Structure formats: structure tokens, C-alpha cells
């Protein structure tokens, strides 16, 4: 059970996995999108109807970490969140493979640090959650080999940046790897990157497992 504080604002940030085809208006049927963030938002609201909480989704499909930084003032700082969850990195690899305009590992590290430094400079007590970028397998063998070879470097950086900033790290690659031992990986990540409905449920469970205690002990 999530025991949130009065007036908590929980922000989910990232790329298409977080975007989840979210609505861009105030239609509450669609405002959180479809995916792990919707599952978590549903539970947070149901557990805390008396706390005036707000869950905000600002994921944008196709975003790299540099794209997040470009809109960080508007889509993070000005929202004034008390909890920020970030999942980003896979498009930095995607774009590097496709057209060379992704971010190499050290640029990814540098910009990630800037994102977190800016949050904590404004609000040092913000609870930050860093989610691990992950990859399954693709039917495009060249792409699949590239992603598998490189994704671990970005995952390691995300973990290190989380540790440096006192953030909660949510590991996801091991979860998908283990689940793929009992089912076809395409039942979890339908194109190697984007989760299925069941894949999103697994992410939500892992997020809660890693973050719930930190939320409740604040």
C-alpha cells in the first residue's frame, strides 16, 4: 500500500514506454496513458483518496535523454513534484543505431546528472526513482545484436547516477531475462523494446517492490 503525503505530486518521465499514448488534454480516461505508470497511478489514487495527491505523466515517445533535458524546466521543475520517476535511455541507443544522433554513454551520464542536480537544487527532499533501460530481442538481427551489446553500459550508468544522488534504482533487465525463461520474450516485449500488457504489469510490480518502502518512510 502506498502511504503518500498530503498534496504529493508524483511525476513519471521518459520516452514511449512511459508515454503510453497518454492524452494531451484533461480527459481523465486517458491522462495517464496505458502502461506501468497507469497501473501505479491507479493504486496510488485508490490508496490515498484523502491526501489530494496528483499523478502526472510527461513521457514523450521518441525522447532521448537530451530531449528530456530540453524540456526539464517546463515538464519537471515547474510541476514541483515530490516524487520523480525516470525511464530513459533506449532511444539514445535506437538513434545511435539508426542515424547516429543518439547519446554515447558518457553524454548520457553527463545529462542524467544535470537532470537530477537541477531537481535536487530546487527541492533537496525530492524522492527520485531511476528505472533501468532494458532490451529483449528483435527480429532484426543486426539491430538486436547492437542493442544487446550496448544496453548494459547505459543500465550501469543509470544505476551509478542513482547511487550518486541517493535515488532509488529499479532494475528491470534481470526481471525480463528471468521471465523469458518461462515464456517467449515477445510475450513480454513485443518488439524488443515496448512492453506488452503483461510486461507493463511486471514493471509496475518491480517498481512497487523497490520504491514503496521509500515512499512510505518519508
Strands, helices and their partners?
Layout: E1 9-14, H1 16-19, H2 36-47, E2 54-57, H3 65-70, H4 72-75, E3 83-87, H5 90-98, H6 105-122, E4 127-131, H7 141-164, E5 168-170, H8 173-179, H9 197-216
Parallel strand pairs: 1-2, 1-3, 3-4, 4-5
Helix pairs in contact: 2-9, 5-7, 6-7
Describe the protein.
With 218 residues, this protein is of the alpha/beta class. It has a single domain (9-216), classed as SGNH hydrolase (Rossmann fold), CATH 3.40.50. It has nine helices and five strands; from the N terminus they run E-H-H-E-H-H-E-H-H-E-H-E-H-H. The chain has helices at residues 16-19, 36-47, 65-70, 72-75, 90-98, 105-122, 141-164, 173-179, 197-216, and strands spanning 9-14, 54-57, 83-87, 127-131, 168-170. A five-stranded parallel sheet has the order 2-1-3-4-5, with helices on both faces. It starts with 8 loop residues before the first strand and ends with a helix.
What is shown here, in short?
This protein has 218 residues and is of the alpha/beta class. It has helices at 16-19, 36-47, 65-70, 72-75, 90-98, 105-122, 141-164, 173-179, 197-216, and strands spanning 9-14, 54-57, 83-87, 127-131, 168-170.
